[in-house]
Amino acid sequence: MTQDIWTSVDDYITSSLVGHDEVLEGALERSAAHGLPPISVSPPQGQLLVLLARAMRARRILELGTLGGYSTIWLARALPRGGRVVTLELEPTHADVARQNLRRANLARRVDVRVGPALDTLDQLIAEHVTPFDLVFIDADKPRIPDYYARALALTRPGSAIIVDNVVRDGKVADPSSDDPNVQGVRALHDVLAHEDRVSATTIQTVGSKGYDGFTLALVNRP
Ligand code: SAH
Ligand code: DHB
Ligand code: MG
């Protein structure tokens, strides 16, 4: 069982359950045309983000790692009227492509794209005492995941959800001797979560068009 069948099944799920969507497919095409890497969430993963956001009636969503705004479009579509996505991106060129894609999706008014190192922007948001976010999607640089998780906790409330992408990494998350900083980042997240009573969390392994990986879901507990 390998990549070909995982990709066929993702194509099948996309055709049968998720549906094809010109705006989303156009966003991927524009991102590729500008040389952005093809690492956006898959359509079934985008739909999972939507379902989780809707299940918790998220009105304020924070995303770390915008790229071309593909996952941002999914998240923004899950918002009720008056809801908002704040998405953080290091690379100005990525942010520009994302803004174009969001305009094309008619979602630019609901989304705030903030350019700069996510750590700095997160500290600004904390200093501004912004209204807590209901859902945080962490999908930027992996070595800083533990720092992002700590800031996400400061920017949420009991009942909020924190989702972290790419935490299984072909199974390398289980290798304590890995010297890959990405693996060390996701292992450090698990170390923190193991000693954390402020959230309840699990990690789910996934296969699909993006290979073998997984995500962590953490819910902020009532004190
Ligand atoms: N969420 C996107 C994919 C994000 S890829 C989607 O699914 O469609 C990761 C993104 O994080 C890249 O665009 C990269 O430029 C950005 N990134 C990397 N380091 C960052 C940092 N320190 N701060 C903010 N964004 C960063
Ligand atoms: C990479 C980043 C991602 O967020 C992802 O989902 C897949 C790959 C990467 O940096 O290679
Ligand atoms: Mg990712």
The CATH homologous superfamily is named Vaccinia Virus protein VP39
Kindly name the structural category.
Answer: alpha/beta
Indicate the mean pLDDT.
Answer: 98
Task: Please give the share of residues in helix.
Answer: 40-55%
Second-tier CATH architecture:
3-Layer(aba) Sandwich
In terms of DSSP E residues, the strand content is 15-25%
Shape: globular
The H/E string reads HHHEHEHEHEHEHEE
Determine Rg (CA atoms, Å): 17 Å
Read across the widest sheet, the strand sequence of neighbours is: 3-2-1-4-5-7-6
Described by strand count, sense and barrel closure, the largest sheet is: 7 strands, mixed
For the secondary structure, the number of strands is 7
| Discrete helix count | 8
CATH top-level class? Alpha Beta
The tally of domains stands at 1
Structure, explained:
- With 223 residues, the chain is α/β, with parallel strands linked by helices.
- The protein has a single domain (3-220), classed as Vaccinia Virus protein VP39 (Rossmann fold, 3-Layer(aba) Sandwich), CATH 3.40.50.150.
- The protein has eight helices and seven strands, in the order H-H-H-E-H-E-H-E-H-E-H-E-H-E-E.
- The chain has helices at 3-18, 22-33, 43-55, 70-77, 92-104, 118-127, 145-154, 181-194; strands at residues 60-64, 84-89, 111-115, 133-138, 156-165, 199-208, 211-220.
- Strands 3-2-1-4-5-7-6 form a seven-stranded mixed beta sheet, sandwiched between helices.
- Helix 5 (92-104) links the parallel strand 2 (84-89) and strand 3.
- Helix 2 runs antiparallel to helix 5 (92-104), helix 3 (43-55) runs parallel beside helix 4 (70-77) and helix 6 runs parallel beside helix 7 (145-154).
- The radius of gyration is 17 Å and the shape is globular.
- The N and C termini lie far apart (44 Å).
- The site of S-adenosyl-L-homocysteine (SAH) has 18 residues, from helix 4 and strand 2.
